[in-house]
């Protein structure tokens, strides 16, 4: 999914970000005024070039658990489970040794 600015998505209320010299900051999209997009942010209402805007990347939660395994040559390696069914499958394998972690949940940007 592209994060480039999309007027229809911005009008529908999706979060918008404005590019500054220090990176992107969240702003409120107000509307269009001629060729400029109007945003509201820390400096008040500001007309900007729409090319300086983007739809904010979505954040999703990723859940995982890490297991240690041992291959036929006696070498250890790790494997990751991302859901309960996968964890049960891994736990049933003969080369499964133990879980290295409990379930972890992290937020990542798409």
How many helices does DSSP assign? 2
User: Would you list the SSEs in sequence order as H and E?
Assistant: HEEEEEEEHEE
Radius of gyration (CA) equals 23 Å
Sequence stretches where pLDDT stays below 50 over 5 or more residues: none
Q: How many structural domains?
A: 2
Oligomer designation:
single chain
3D shape: rod-shaped
Helix/strand structural class: mainly beta
User: What's the story with the biggest beta sheet?
Assistant: 5 strands, antiparallel
User: How confident is the prediction overall: mean pLDDT?
Assistant: 95
Q: How much β-strand is present in the residues?
A: over 45%
Helix content: 10-25%
| Count of DSSP strands | 9
Brief overview:
13% of the residues lie in helices and 53% in strands. The chain has 110 residues and is mainly beta. The strands form two sheets. The protein has a five-stranded antiparallel beta sheet. Strands 6, 7, 8 and 9 form a four-stranded antiparallel beta sheet that branches.
Structure characterization notes:
The structure is a single chain. The chain has helices at 7-11, 84-92, and strands at residues 16-20, 23-33, 36-41, 44-48, 53-55, 59-70, 76-81, 96-99, 104-109. The chain is mainly beta and 110 residues long. The protein folds into 2 domains: 7-55, Roll (SH3 type barrels), CATH 2.30.30; 59-109, no CATH class. The strands form 2 sheets. Strands 4-3-2-1-5 form a 5-stranded antiparallel β-sheet. Strands 6, 7, 8 and 9 form a 4-stranded antiparallel β-sheet that branches. The termini are close together. Strand 6 and strand 7 form a beta hairpin. Helix content is 13%, strand content 53%.
